[in-house]
C-alpha cells in the first residue's frame, strides 16, 4: 500500500478511537453510578463503621480490644430493630440451644443454691449421678478439687462447671448428712433428658391434663405419647396448659395444632419484607380431631403458645380460658457466626388464620414501655378484671364461625378468669417476696427427708403434711429470719400459705407432675376448664346475633372482613411505631 494512503487513514483511526473511548467510558461510568445507587448506602455505612473501629484502634488514648467493643455493640445494634432480635455470645449459645433440645450433657441432678452452697434436691433416675451414688440432700462443696462455696456460687457458674461434653469427667466433693468426712465421686457426663411436657395425667375419670413448658425439638412426639396414654384411659376431653409457656420452635406448634384440626384448615401464615407469604395448613392426619379441647393461657404465654392458641380459637376448634397472652407476633431466624456466636433476627411476622397479628405495640430501639408492659397490665388491673382490657375495634377479625376476635396485642381468651387475690395480706406478700416459703420448704425437706421418702404421690404426702402443723413451724422460721409474726394476717392467708408450703415440699420430694396435681386441685382456671368440659361446651358456637343484617356472614365475607382488618393494621405503621408487627 502506498505510504501516502496510510497517512490518509490516521485521522479516521484517531476519531474512531476517541469515539470508542467515549462509549467505553460512558458505559463504565454508568455501571459505576448504578452500583453506587444499589450498594453505595450499605457500603458507605459499613465502611464508616469499619473506619470508626480502625480509628479507635489506631488513635484512642488507651489500648482497646476491638473484639470486646464489637461484642458490646452487637446487642445494642440489634436492640434498635425490635424487642426480640438478639445477639447470643459464643459462651452462651450452647446453653440457649440446650433449652429447646430434648436433652443436654450433664451429671443428672436438680439443685438449688442455699446459703452459698449447691444443695442437690433431686437425682434424675438412671442418670450419671445416680449411678455413682449421689443422693438427694447431698451438698456439693468441691468441683474438680477446687472449693466451690461462697459468693462464687451462682446458678450460671454452677451450670457451667457441672455441665460439659458427653463422656467428660467431673470430680465432686460431697458433704452428706451423717458423714464426718467429705465423700468424693467421679462422674462421667452423659445425655440428660430435657422434657417439654411437665405433666400428663387424667385429672379425673373423664378428662386429661397436659402441661407444656416450651415448644422444643421433642415436644411434638412427647405430646403424641401423652395423648396416646390418655386415650388408653378413655379420655373424653383434654386441657392443654400453656400458662407461662414462652414459646420455642414454630414448627413444633404447627405439628401439635395439626393433631386437632381436620384437613385443609389454616394453622398460621408468615410474611415479611424478604419473605413471601407462606401458609401452613393442616393435613388431616391428626389423631385427636374430635377430642374436646381447652387451652389455658396467661400473660406469660408467648410466641409459639400464641400460634397454638390462635389457630384453635380462629378455627373454632376449642375454648381458650385464662388471661390475655403476652403478644409476640415475630418470627426469628437463627444465624451463626464463625466464632460460635449467633443472632436471632426477626425476618417475618406471623398471622393467625383470621389474619390477625398479635404483636403488641412497640417503638424501635430500647423501648422501656415494652419491657414494662406486664407490670403496666398488672397496675391497670388487667389481671383482675376483664373490663380493664380495651380492645381496638380497628383490629377486629372473625373466626370461621363469625365470632369477633382482636389483633394488636396478644390472644384474648374466650373465657376470662382473673388472678385470685383471696387471702393475700402484707404478711404473706413479704414472706413470698423474701423467698422465705421456699427456704423453709427446702430446710424442712432436708431435715425430714428419710421420713418423707415413705410417700410416693402427692395425695399421700399431703395427708401426712397436714398433721405436721407446717404453718406454725414456718412462722417460727420466718421470725428467725426477721419477719415479725402477725397471727391475724397469717391465718387470714392460711389457704395461700398451705398451698405454697405444701406445694414446695411436694415438689422437693417428688416431681413436677405430682406438684401440678396438687396445685390443680385448687386452681380456679383449671376448675373452670373442667366445668366447660363437663357441660360439653368446649366447641364454640356461632354468635346468635346476625353479623350482617341482610344475610348470615359467609366464609367469603368473613375473609373480606379479616382482610380489611389486616389492612387497617398495616396502615397504622409509622416510622418508629409498630402496632402489630415485628
CA-based gyration radius = 31 Å
**Largest sheet properties:** 6 strands, antiparallel
Question: How many H/I helical runs?
Answer: 20
Instruction: Give the structural class.
Output: alpha+beta
Principal-axes geometry comes out as: globular
Beta percentage is: 15-25%
> In angstroms, what separates the terminal alpha carbons?
77 Å
Name the poorly predicted regions: 18-41, 546-553, 568-582
* Mean of all residue-level pLDDT scores: 86
Overall helicity: 40-55%
**Record field, number of beta strands:** 23
Précis, in short:
With 582 residues, the protein is an alpha+beta fold. Helix content is 41%, strand content 19%.
Descriptive overview:
The protein is α+β, with helices and mostly antiparallel strands and 582 residues long. 41% of the residues lie in helices and 19% in strands. The chain is built from 20 helices and 23 strands. Strands 3, 4, 5, 6, 7 and 8 form a six-stranded antiparallel sheet that branches. The chain has a six-stranded mixed sheet with strand order 10-11-12-15-16-22, sandwiched between helices. Strands 1, 13, 14, 17 and 18 form a five-stranded antiparallel sheet that branches. A hairpin with a 5-residue loop joins strand 17 (330-336) and strand 18. Helix 12 crosses helix 17. It starts with a helix and ends with a strand. The model is unreliable at 18-41, 546-553 and 568-582 (pLDDT under 50).
Amino acid at each position: 500500500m502506498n505510504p501516502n494512503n496510510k497517512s490518509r487513514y490516521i485521522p479516521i483511526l484517531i476519531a474512531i478511537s476517541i469515539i470508542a473511548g467515549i462509549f467505553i467510558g460512558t458505559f463504565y461510568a454508568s455501571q459505576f453510578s448504578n452500583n453506587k445507587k444499589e450498594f453505595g448506602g450499605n457500603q458507605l455505612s459499613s465502611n464508616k463503621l469499619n473506619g470508626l473501629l480502625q480509628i479507635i484502634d489506631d488513635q484512642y488514648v488507651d489500648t482497646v480490644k476491638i473484639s470486646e467493643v464489637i461484642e458490646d455493640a452487637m446487642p445494642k445494634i440489634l436492640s434498635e430493630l425490635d424487642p426480640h432480635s438478639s445477639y447470643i455470645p459464643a459462651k452462651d449459645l450452647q446453653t440457649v440451644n440446650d433449652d429447646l433440645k430434648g436433652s443436654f450433657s450433664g451429671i443428672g441432678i436438680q439443685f438449688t443454691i442455699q446459703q452459698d452452697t449447691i444443695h442437690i434436691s433431686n437425682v434424675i433416675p438412671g442418670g450419671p449421678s445416680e449411678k455413682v451414688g449421689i443422693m438427694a440432700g447431698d451438698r456439693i462443696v468441691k468441683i474438680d478439687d477446687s472449693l466451690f462455696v461462697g459468693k462464687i456460687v451462682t446458678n450460671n457458674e454452677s451450670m457451667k462447671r457441672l455441665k460439659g461434653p458427653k463422656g467428660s469427667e467431673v470430680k465432686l466433693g460431697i458433704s452428706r448428712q451423717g458423714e464426718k468426712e467429705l465423700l468424693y465421686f467421679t462422674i462421667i457426663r452423659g445425655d440428660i433428658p430435657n422434657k417439654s411436657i411437665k405433666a400428663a395425667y387424667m385429672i379425673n375419670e373423664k378428662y386429661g391434663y397436659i402441661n407444656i413448658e416450651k415448644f422444643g425439638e421433642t415436644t411434638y412426639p412427647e405430646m403424641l405419647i401423652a395423648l396416646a396414654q390418655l386415650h388408653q384411659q378413655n379420655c373424653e376431653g383434654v386441657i392443654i396448659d400453656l400458662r407461662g409457656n414462652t414459646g420455642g420452635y414454630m414448627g413444633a406448634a404447627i405439628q401439635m395444632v395439626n393433631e386437632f384440626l381436620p384437613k385443609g384448615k389454616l394453622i398460621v401464615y408468615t410474611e415479611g419484607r424478604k419473605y413471601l407469604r407462606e401458609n401452613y395448613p393442616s393435613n388431616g392426619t391428626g389423631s385427636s380431631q374430635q377430642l374436646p379441647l381447652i387451652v389455658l393461657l396467661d400473660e406469660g404465654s408467648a410466641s409459639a403458645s400464641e400460634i397454638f392458641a390462635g389457630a384453635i380459637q380462629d378455627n373454632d376448634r376449642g375454648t381458650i380460658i385464662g388471661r390475655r397472652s403476652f403478644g409476640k407476633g415475630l418470627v426469628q431466624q437463627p444465624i451463626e457466626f464463625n466464632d460460635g456466636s449467633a443472632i436471632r433476627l426477626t425476618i417475618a411476622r406471623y398471622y393467625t388464620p383470621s389474619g390477625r397479628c398479635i404483636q403488641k405495640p412497640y417503638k424501635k430501639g430500647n423501648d422501656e414501655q415494652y419491657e414494662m408492659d406486664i407490670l403496666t397490665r398488672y397496675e391497670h388491673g388487667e389481671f383482675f378484671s376483664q373490663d380493664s382490657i380495651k380492645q381496638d375495634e380497628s383490629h377486629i377479625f372473625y373466626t370461621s364461625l363469625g365470632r369477633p376476635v382482636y389483633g394488636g396485642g396478644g390472644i384474648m381468651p374466650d373465657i376470662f378468669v382473673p388472678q385470685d387475690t383471696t387471702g393475700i395480706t402484707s404478711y404473706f406478700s413479704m414472706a413470698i417476696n423474701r423467698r422465705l416459703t421456699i427456704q423453709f420448704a427446702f430446710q424442712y425437706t432436708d431435715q425430714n427427708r428419710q421420713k418423707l421418702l415413705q410417700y410416693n404421690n402427692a395425695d399421700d404426702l399431703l395427708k401426712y403434711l397436714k398433721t405436721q402443723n407446717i404453718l406454725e413451724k414456718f412462722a417460727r422460721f420466718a421470725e428467725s429470719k426477721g419477719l415479725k409474726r402477725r397471727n391475724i394476717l397469717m391465718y387470714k392467708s392460711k389457704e395461700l400459705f398451705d398451698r405454697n408450703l405444701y406445694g414446695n415440699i411436694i415438689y422437693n420430694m417428688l416431681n413436677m407432675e405430682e406438684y401440678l396435681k396438687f396445685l390443680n386441685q385448687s386452681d380456679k382456671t383449671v376448675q373452670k376448664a373442667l366445668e366447660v368440659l363437663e357441660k360439653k361446651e368446649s366447641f364454640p358456637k356461632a354468635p346468635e346475633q346476625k353479623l350482617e343484617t341482610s344475610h348470615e356472614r359467609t366464609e367469603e365475607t368473613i375473609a373480606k372482613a379479616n382482610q380489611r382488618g389486616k389492612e387497617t393494621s398495616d396502615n397504622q405503621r409509622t416510622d418508629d411505631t409498630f402496632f402489630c408487627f415485628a
